[in-house]
Amino acid sequence: MISSKKWVQFTFHVAIWALVFALPYLLDSGPKPGHIAISSREETAFFYLRLSTYFFWIPLFYLNSAVLTPRFIYTRKIVSYVLLLLLSLSIILVFHGLIFNALIPESYSLPRAVRYNLPTFMLTIAVSVLYKMSRDKIREEETIQEIQQENLRTELSFLRSQISPHFVFNVLNNIVAMVRLKHENLEETVIKLSSLMQYMLYEADDDKVRLKREAEYLQSYIDLQQQRFGSKVNITTDVSLSDEWHEIEPMLLIPFVENAFKHGVGMIEDPQINIELRTEGKILYFSVKNKFNHDQMEIKDKTSGIGLTNVTRRLNLLYAGEHKLDISTEGNWFNVSLQLNLHV
After folding, report:
1. Of the residues 1, 73, 78, 272, which has the fewest C-beta atoms closer than 10 A?
2. What domain range is 56 assigned to?
3. What are the tens digits of pLDDT across the range 12-32?
4. Are 144 and 176 part of one and the same domain?
5. Are 212 and 126 found together in one domain?
6. The model's pTM
């Protein structure tokens, strides 16, 4: 891939220089009024003079862009830079004079040579500096973008890993109790936990997953919590997906449900958790409501998890301008409502 890109760049540069060399002849429309006619021998000599002079500009262009500009302009050593340019122009004029005397049997005129070469010299230097600066700017922006993308991937990976391990620990304890009691739902519980862990460890590393898989993961989580708490917590779920094949960032919805179970159980009268997930076209509507104890909620927020701060950050990173999140309390109810534009 890198070798291929270098060949493309090399071919592009060759084509540009070929166009530059050919441009004066392409624009030449023949003798102008008042133009002094010259012999074919002199015309051939001037052609070779121009052609040989053109090849001074190629090394000058790349010398200035690769060496002089970064070492002197970038470091603000302008006086040294100007002196080196004058030295370069002097060397070009010397070689130009030698070629002129070899090809054209006339006396060499330095002022005329300066007038002839100086505009092209200045243009070559200016284009070379612009080329170097624009290329460095593009590379800098690409590097910044790569760093930002890598930082984003690192941050998202870290945020995904923050799903509370206490849930798994509690489920394992629940499984131990079920083993001792020889509970009939033991096998189903182990299968659900296995599916949950498989999703968390493998599929959650993908940039996007099918909404269907995310919904299945949520349902397994809710089912395990239902088995854990039994009739102590009233849990209602309503999942209605018009199209299960939309894609979503993995483990994006689970923190809302986890937060509900963290704050919606315990020292609460008639604990209740209501979860709704539905899609309409490309819009996802997700809501989680749970009863809560204000004092207990403050204690839990200080001692465990990073909860909704986590998922809010992820939403801002991944769905900036494409989501609407509303978090509110009403009486002893904690409400979360999310509206999300899904990516197909």
Report:
1. 1
2. 2-26+37-156
3. 677 776 666 665 555 444 444
4. no
5. no
6. 0.55
